Amino acid sequence: MPSSSSQRGKSIGVDQKLDPNLPIPLYHQAYTLLRHAISDGTWASGDQLPSEAALCDTLGVSRITIKRALSELAVEGLISRHRGRGTVVNAHKSIGLVRADFGEMMKDLLDVVDQTKVDLLRAGKTMPSPQIADDLGLGDNEEAYEVFRRRLMDGEPYVYSISYIPSEVADKFPANGAEQTSLLQLLINVGHAPHEAFQRMTATSADKQIAANLDLNLGDPVLKVVRVFKTQSMQPVQHTTMYFRPDRYEYTLVLPASHAID
């Protein structure tokens, strides 16, 4: 028998079909509609969303469209997906999702690679945390390739990063690849080129490990950036958490007038 939250989830005001004639992509229409249902409290924390098949039927779109919409909600921290439990609404969060031009971001990343030196600190397979496994679409007990690195600019620490790549993808990397080549280039080389990235940014304090790798004092402020890269088919292929020294990193985002807020 379906749970009360599942029964309630099918009559939440998302009973209209999406409009393919609008200039807004269908996946973003679905994302916006579902996000609104979460933000206005129609779906409360702990509620289970309808199945992907039910959402496809309700909204009149394909499975890949719903998967993409749910992926955005998951990266934003508003839902989590659990094998055997389905998709569950998280506690309401005020996490902002920064959307920059992907082409420009990739160019900036490649420029950083050219201008910095990388130290590979540690690499190997591990069991990622539930949140990271969820962001990567991994099932229970699925391992990921974990890479700890830091980049230096002019000989000084610039960013400390921890990356996870699904094992089925990382197994295609050459031996010692992470030591000699950027992870993005490795993904491109093995046929899993990133097509889209989702990013979360926040300020945090340096713990012992971060402070040691960035030559900071314990508790010093750092900028934390989480990026999840996906292929054109929306397959998650890399989850990276980066900690930047605020005195050596500035994030600038140019917004069109339509995004300006008074």
Question: Can you tag this structure with a few keywords?
Answer:
disordered N terminus; 27% strand; 7-stranded antiparallel beta sheet; two-stranded antiparallel ribbon; Chorismate lyase; 10 helices; alpha+beta
Question: Any overview of this molecule?
Answer:
- The chain folds into two domains: 4-89, Arc Repressor Mutant, subunit A; 98-244, Chorismate lyase, CATH 3.40.1410.
- By secondary structure, it is α+β, with helices and mostly antiparallel strands.
- The chain has helices spanning 4-9, 26-39, 52-59, 63-75, 102-115, 130-135, 167-170, 177-180, 183-189, 208-214, and strands at residues 79-82, 86-89, 97-98, 117-126, 144-153, 156-166, 196-205, 221-230, 236-244.
- Helix 2 (26-39) crosses helix 4 (63-75) and helix 3 (52-59) crosses helix 4.
- The chain has ten helices and nine strands.
- It is globular and about 55 Å long.
- A hairpin with a 2-residue loop joins strand 5 (144-153) and strand 6.
- It has a seven-stranded antiparallel beta sheet.
- Mean pLDDT is 78; it is low at 1-13 and 93-102.
